Amino acid sequence: MSTSAVEPGTRLAERFRLEDRVSESDGATLWKAIDEILARPVAVHTFSPDFPRVHEVVTAARAASRLTDPRITQVFDAAEDDKAAYVVSEWVTGETLADLLASGPLEPERAAGLVAEAAEALAHAHEAQLYHLCLRPAHLMWTTGNTVKVLGVAVDAALAGLTTDQPALDDAEGLGRLLYAGLTGHWPGDEEEGGLPAAPMTDGHFCSPRQVTAGVPGYLDTVTVRACLPESRRGQSPLSSPSEVAEALADVARPMPIPISYPSTPAVASASHTEGLDIAHRQQTAMQPRPPAPRPISNGGGGGTLNRVLMTVVVLLVIVAVGVGAWTIGRSLGSPTDPVEAGGTTPATTAPVTAQEMEAVKPDKASGFDPLGDGDEKSDIAKLAIDGKPGTLWKTETYTSADLGRLKDGVGLLLDMGKSMQIGDVEVTLSDASGASVELKVGDSAELGSLKTVATAKDASGKTTLTPEQATSGQYVLIWFTRVPTDAGTFHGTIYEVVVHSPGSA
Question: Can you give the residue ranges of every domain in the chain?
Fold first, then answer.
């Protein structure tokens, strides 16, 4: 199929309808298209007849389609034949790193968190012998779903015809350059990149981030230097792979999918205007001192000493009266109905019963649960919902409507706790998109009919707590979607993290 024959409205594989030409370079054209079967936008690459690397691109795309890390762009289809060659992948919406840097450098922790997520994703790709080789600010995206996406793994290198003898080192350096850009708003290269100016130089080599931007923490400056500034290392060992970069950034805070609710403190710097005014008013009211008691008017002459004596006596009498009153009230509250027993002793009072302390219990394993379909629902990434990392996620398959395409009544994530235990509550971090209906099911058998629904939440989003109305125990905990929200024209359920709390073993 020639380039002239590929126009808006062209349908590929009888399902992908090309809509808008996004970009074109050296015989490869990127389109925004519609998957007419699943009613979702997709990205499609098509190629002119004289494009020299069609086979390499299609081969790379097919290999990339097997990657399971949700932070890597998903490849849906790739074909190569006499009539047409194309690659279909996920259409990602959001802001690239270049977009985020349009108004200046990011907060250091945010820049580090974004790159840490990208480093972990690329480490996963490298385990499958797949590399990026051309990391630029346009390849790192913060999506509208509040997740990190690395675009173009394997495919973009094939498109550009890039090869290397040291792919791990090249990608580590690429991650270092992204971190440098995030910390400084400059690109450590000979020319500007993605609208970012070239980094300043001194003595023939690039300045370190701390030399460019005030306030960059020393450890992030060191990580950047070790990754991509060999002239400034001064004996420090280089970071020579994405996994080493990921390890160096393992302790940085990650970008969260939803706002975090922090405990209230006396100073609420991040509250809204209304909340701030309300809290300030309450604090002022609570802390406002009582007005001083009126002082007796002096009659002048020698009456001052007598007045002071009288005031002292009055104050002492008031203190004694208050003390006696408090003792009497406390005694009556401690034993409101029980009379004093013979012998002048009061009966022992029972301490109030406090709620049993809840503890977070880590599940032994997690799996996608689809008993009404093909039996499995992306179990290969289910562990990402219990890994303690809010930036990773498990999600359902994509459906054509909120009611799971009318294919089934539900689908979910099944947790095996390892043994039967009492379930106090389950905290589930969903996507920000509203419209999810979820049920909490618990039981001692991993069979849908044996799992009892103990809590429900409708139109749920963000952090959702599912609390059973009565004591519930079991080995298996199921978060069961009966409706899923929409996201960029598609429908799927998303779980970033699950935390199960138990007051003790059943």
Answer: 10-90, 94-249, 358-503
